[in-house]
Design a protein that fits this description.
This protein has 292 residues and is an alpha/beta fold. The chain is built from 9 helices and 13 strands. The strands form 2 sheets. A 9-stranded mixed sheet has the order 5-4-1-8-9-10-11-12-13, sandwiched between helices. α1 crosses α8 and α8 runs antiparallel to α9.
């Protein structure tokens, strides 16, 4: 269905673009843009759709995109460029997310519509939909997606920036749904999901007509469900620098692999390997080893 073996797929991320601010450094990030970064490292054409402020951090982060060969549709708006304070506990991050920032005011532009129309995969989540402006823009952009595009919804629950209504509305647009084990626990209560993890996931797939559902369980395992198959892979043991962006790396690698004709198992294995590699590096945008 998604096989793009004969051409370079275009992968678009819509949503938050921000600085991850660690105690000793800052790194460019934002889940949809991380998704694009890793897909481009694997060979895709990538475009980030977001907004930054008319400030020095905004100029710097656009420069980071360009340095990493990520095409972009970044509007400059009258709000500060976003940042997230990241604290690490044995490599696992906790986040304090600044409110009322540029990516909360993502405008709908013809340029963004044109990128979405061409896209073979589009990544979006709940966080960038916390404000009415960006939520309405993302909804409008998704209406322009090709009928054959992968619409990759990484739920990415953060703080209080989500609701059942928002998740349900996003699921109705999605063809791929990714979440982690903690997020599944939250959705069990929210959606009344009972039974095993597989039963819960397959119920969601049926209710929302999903092609794939991805459940990650940190250092334990990850499982990918399609309509006909299930793939479970234990998480490799690696020396963890930090896990920031590892889930987004998994997502970008999986989408790229499916688009380029890989089987479910091959795409899952590549996603696991890329996510494990990212855990061994600092920040969400590490340089890729030649072996990858």
């Amino acid at each position: 269905m998604y096989n793009m073996e004969d051409k370079k797929p275009l992968i678009v991320g819509i949503g938050e673009l921000l600085w991850d601010v660690f105690p000793d450094r800052k790194k460019a990030g934002g889940a949809p843009v991380n998704f694009v970064y890793h897909a481009t490292r694997m060979g895709a054409e990538g475009c980030a759709i977001s907004a930054v402020g008319k400030d020095v951090p905004g100029t710097e982060i656009i420069r980071e995109l360009e340095k990493n060969r990520i095409r972009n549709c970044i509007e400059k708006v009258a709000y500060p460029t976003g940042n997230v304070l990241v604290e690490l506990n044995e490599g696992s991050p906790s986040y304090t997310i600044t409110e009322d920032v540029a990516w909360d005011y993502l405008p709908l532009t013809q340029q963004a519509i044109d990128w979405v129309k061409r896209a073979d995969a589009i990544c979006f989540g709940t966080l960038a939909q916390r404000s009415p402006v960006s939520r309405n823009t993302i909804k409008a952009l998704l209406e322009h997606a090709s009928a054959t595009a992968i619409l990759f919804f990484d739920v990415n629950l953060r703080q209080h920036y989500y609701s059942k209504e928002l998740i349900e509305e996003s699921l109705q647009k999605a063809s791929v749904f990714k979440l982690n084990d903690d997020e599944l626990t939250a959705l069990r209560a929210m959606f009344g999901l009972e039974g095993s993890d597989e039963e819960a996931c397959r119920r969601m797939m049926g209710n929302y007509n999903l092609d794939y559902m991805i459940l990650t369980a940190g250092s334990v395992s990850s499982t990918v469900y399609s309509r006909m198959e299930t793939s479970m892979i234990p998480t490799p043991e690696v020396e963890v620098a930090d896990t920031v962006g590892a889930g987004d790396a998994f997502s970008g690698a999986f989408a790229y692999s499916i688009l380029t004709g890989k089987s479910l198992q091959e795409a899952h294995r590549k996603a696991v390997d890329i996510a494990a590699f990212v855990c061994t590096r600092q920040g969400a945008w590490p340089s890729y080893d030649k072996s990858l």
